[in-house]
Design goal:
Layout lengths: L4 E7 L2 E7 L8 H16 L5 E6 L4 E3 L4 H5 L4 H20 L3 E6 L2 E3 L1 H8 L2 E5 L4 E2 L13 H18 L7 H7 L4 E3 L2 H15 L4 H11 L6 H15 L3 H10 L1
Parallel strand pairs: 2-3, 3-5, 4-6, 5-7, 6-8, 7-9
Antiparallel strand pairs: 1-2
Helix pairs in contact: 1-3, 3-4, 3-9, 4-5
C-alpha cells in the first residue's frame, strides 16, 4: 500500500470506514475532508446500523496531522484551515446518529488520539500506545483537547498533553477510559470488533440514536469551540518557537 485513501464499505448493516497514508497514517487536509464526508454519509444511510473506524497497516493507527502540510503553513488563515480538518472529523463523529466503534491497532499520536477519543466505543491492541505531542513542537492539543478530555478526564488529558515526549501504553489508556478493551494481537482485536459490531446490529436503531444524543449531551457548542481552537493553533504554528522547532524535525 502506497497511495493514500479513505475507503467505505457496507456489509450486513456494518459500515467500515478505513483511512491510510504511507506516512504512518498521518492525515493531510484532503484525507480529513474525505473522512468527515464518509462518516456523515454513513450516518445518513438507512442501511447502516453501526460504523467501524479503522486505519490501514499494522503498526500505527494514526500519526496525527500531516507534517508536510504543517511545515508549509505561512499565514494564519492557512493555519486555521489546516487545523480545522480534525475539528470537522470530530464534529462529524459526534453528530453521527450511529454508534462508531474505534479499532486502534497500533500507536496513535496527536490528532489520532482525538479520533480515538471521539469514537463511541474504542477497542485496541496492546500495541496501541498514545501520545499528545503537540506541545513538543510549540502548539498544543487545542482542537482535539475537548474530545480527549471527554474520555480521559481533565487530569488524564492534562497529563499526556504536558508530558508531550512520552507514549502512554494501552493499559494506561484503558484504565483512563479511552479503550473499552485491549487485545493481545491485531487478529484478536479484529475478531472482537467484528463480533461487537454484529451484536450492536441486533439492537433497536432508534434506541441507539437516542442513546448517542444522551452520551454527547453538552457538546452542541463544539462547532464554535473547535473552530476557535483551530484559530489558536493556526496562530501558534507561525510563532518563532514553532518555526524553529519544525526546522529541526525536517
Amino acid at each position: 500500500m502506497t497511495a493514500p485513501y479513505v475507503k467505505h464499505d457496507i456489509q450486513d448493516g456494518i459500515s467500515t470506514i478505513e483511512f491510510f497514508h504511507p506516512a504512518h497514517n498521518s492525515l493531510p487536509g484532503d484525507l480529513l475532508a474525505k473522512l468527515a464526508d464518509a462518516i456523515t454519509q454513513a450516518g445518513e444511510n438507512d442501511a447502516v446500523k453501526v460504523i467501524i473506524l479503522k486505519s490501514g497497516g499494522d503498526r500505527t493507527f494514526c500519526a496525527g496531522a500531516s507534517f508536510k502540510e504543517l511545515v508549509s503553513i505561512n499565514d494564519p488563515e492557512t493555519g486555521r484551515i489546516f487545523f480545522s480538518g480534525f475539528a470537522n472529523v470530530i464534529n462529524a463523529m459526534r453528530k453521527c446518529p450511529k454508534f462508531i466503534i474505534g479499532r486502534i491497532q497500533g500507536k496513535t499520536v496527536g490528532g489520532g488520539v482525538g479520533l480515538a477519543s471521539a469514537t463511541d466505543y474504542c477497542m485496541a491492541s496492546k500495541f496501541a500506545s498514545i501520545k499528545l505531542s503537540e506541545l513538543n513542537v510549540g502548539i498544543g492539543p487545542f482542537v482535539v483537547g475537548p474530545a480527549v478530555e471527554r474520555k480521559l478526564g481533565l487530569t488524564g488529558m492534562s497529563q499526556i498533553a504536558i508530558d508531550a515526549n512520552s507514549f502512554y501504553d494501552a493499559q494506561w489508556a484503558q484504565q483512563k477510559g479511552l479503550y473499552a478493551s485491549v487485545h493481545e494481537s491485531t487478529q484478536a482485536l479484529d475478531t472482537a470488533v467484528q463480533l461487537f459490531a454484529e451484536n450492536l446490529c441486533t439492537y433497536n436503531p432508534e434506541a441507539m440514536a437516542e442513546m448517542k444524543k444522551v452520551m454527547w449531551a453538552g457538546t452542541q457548542h463544539w462547532d464554535t469551540l473547535l473552530a476557535q481552537r483551530a484559530v489558536i493553533s493556526g496562530r501558534l504554528v507561525l510563532s518563532d518557537f514553532t518555526k524553529k522547532t519544525l526546522k529541526t524535525f525536517k
